[in-house]
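To whoever is on call:

I kicked off a structure prediction for a single chain this morning and the downstream step that reads the tokens threw a length-mismatch warning. I double-checked the sequence; it's 328 residues and nothing unusual in it as far as I can see. Pasting both halves so you can look.
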Amino acid sequence: MKKIRFLYILLAGIFIIPSCTDDEKLNQNFPLNGLTNGAFVRTLLPVISNSANFFDLENAKYEVNIEVNDGGVQFTDLEVFVRYVDNLTEEGENSTNEALLRTYVPGDFTTNPDSGLPRRNLTVTVPEMIDALSLDMEDLEGGNSFTIRLVLNLSDGRSFTNTNTGVDLRAVGGAFASPFFYTLPLVCPSELAAEIDEDDDEKNGTDFEYVNNITASPFGPACSGTQVAGTVNIGAVPGETGVYLVSDASFGLFGCINDSWGNGEVFLLDACGILSFDGSDKYGGTYNLTFVSNNGTDLVFDWINSFGEGGTVTLTGPEADWWPPDLK
């Protein structure tokens, strides 16, 4: 089934490359400086900060290091657009239009000695974003979010952003790691933080039993309508508020189609009790979560990814009445 998914991506006009973890291996496996068909902005992992404490917004920020590969055509600038997204009302009536926050030119970058490519730190603070969007701190609500979108403009007139970049390039866990798009949720201190272990050198998160009723499996039709059960590990990301790494966000669907989760990085976000997914799987697929119910023992939600795979998951807490009652 993995080959079928790769073929699907290839037919969409995208090429697949092996995933690497450092600049040297990336350059050996793929000649970054020889690209002629496009350009991208690589996210250098780990992300430094990707959540905002709603009770400390003055100091909240999204921070990551980035690297530009212009495909051999000099880039003229990198634009940073921001937007406030209302996740609380049905119509998202308090969302704003995008606003240009700032523009970086080549002189704002330094050269990465390993790859020879332009590199810099990208830090976007909440106060900067509310100024750009003509908002006040009082306009913000916990559970909503800011989005940050990058546009890379080249000297030949072409521009690249999240809407014209293939899923393999956007996969944060892949070699390119070029989503051009980041989300900064406004989170309250997570009630889950006291219950879920950190995913660090001393602990490995918390295990949960799940049942996944698969509703859609385009790369393994025999799995549609079936039920799979197993254990998933969810670990709190050290230093982040309400951000939890999920060991398998397909909840057994990949295994059902004879694939494996691999090096995907999908996070469960708890933004003031509102649950959502962030990140991507090893193919660049992104995931959406829709809350169904929470009786304290079982948390039920629907999920679907950008490849059309999905299911309804019942996630059982380690003990009765374990899930905080306000999760939704």
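Update from on-call: the warning came from a stale cache, not from the record. Cleared it. Sanity check on the structure: The chain is about 10% helix and 40% strand.
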